[in-house]
Structure formats: C-alpha cells, structure tokens
Amino acid sequence: xxxxxxNIIPKEIIPGYHAKxxxxxxxxxxxxxxxxxxxxxxxxxxxxxxxxxxxxxxxFTLSGVSQTYESGDLVLIPSHAVHGGKALTACKxxxxxxxxxxxxx
Amino acid sequence: xxxxxxNIIPKEIIPGYHAKxxxxxxxxxxxxxxxxxxxxxxxxxxxxxxxxxxxxxxxFTLSGVSQTYESGDLVLIPSHAVHGGKALTACKxxxxxxxxxxxxx
Lengths: 105, 105
Fold this sequence. Notes:
The structure is a homodimer.
Chain A: E1 2-4, E2 11-14, E3 17-23, E4 28-34, E5 39-43, E6 48-55, E7 58-62, E8 65-69, E9 73-77, E10 83-87, E11 91-98
Antiparallel strand pairs in A: 2-3, 3-4, 4-11, 5-10, 6-9, 6-11, 7-8, 7-10
C-alpha cells in the first residue's frame, strides 16, 4: 500500500495541530503542521513516541524538563512519560508511535 | 533522551546505503543517504516497515510489483513482505520499523 503526503487530508487533532496520518499494523506516523503559539498540554499514553522536528522551533517538556528543539532534532518519549509542548514558531513535526494510535484513525 | 541527526554517525549497512539510526524500545528509525544506482536486493523480515522518500527518485519493488517513488511518497511494507529497491538518483529515505531492528544497533 502506498500514499502521497500531498493526498492525505489533515485532521486538526488539537487546536493548531494539523496531522496527516499514516497507520500500519504496529505503528502510526503523524506529519504535523503546527501553528505558531499552539500548545499541547502535558499528557501521557502507553504508546512509545519518537518526535522529529522537521522545521521551526518547538519547546518541548518531557518528564518536567523543557528544552527547545529545531530542525534535525529527535526526542525519544518512553511509554507513559508525561510530555507537552509549544510551537515557538510555525513548525513541521513528525511523530512516530508504536503501537498504532487507534484514536487518531 | 534526545538526538541531533547531525551528530549521529552513519553506518553503511549495504553498499551505497548509509543510515543514521535512532532506536526506541519498540521501533527503529533509519535516515538513509543512498548513492545513485545503489541497489538493495529483494529480502524480507518480520519487522513491519514504512518507507518515506524524502528526496530523489527510488524504484521500489514490493511483493513483485515495481513502482518509482519520489519526495512525499510513503510505502507500507507488511511484516514478511518481500521488497527491494534501486536509487534512480541519489536519495534520502526514512524507514520506520517495528519492532526494533536489533541487528542495526
């Protein structure tokens, strides 16, 4: 099965966070366009997550520690770790999750 | 834990395929720089894989069907599906695997 990112309709999962999603059997990819200033409140989930900043400047807090990430940065978010963030500029992010984020389908 | 792609030392996993790897508990990301003309022979593995073409033109054969993929294209490769490919130009690819590719560590 194949996909073109340009053909995937984005969903606004939380205000200012627009995701194009690709789901496999064991993992989900979320390509985010994030509006400047948009915040994702601290939360956690059983899914392991790897966040990759593609463009922009994203302030991210993992287990209470905040840091600013930019293009080329990756953060490994263990299962159940509390995390949240704020787009300091408009951002493009890629999140990879395992297992699948069923609620994003 | 966090990483900068620019700080990761690439490994040439097969000739012409240079990967910067990030491993979690349940998944591995491989950021490939592929030399023009480099081929990966048909193979299979138990890991599910999602291939994402970042740059270039990559001829990919999945379960006997060949197609050329370019920037923005994604291919879902089910567990145990036979696949291989050839870089028609120099390419940048991202592969996501679950579970972890232990042999790439």
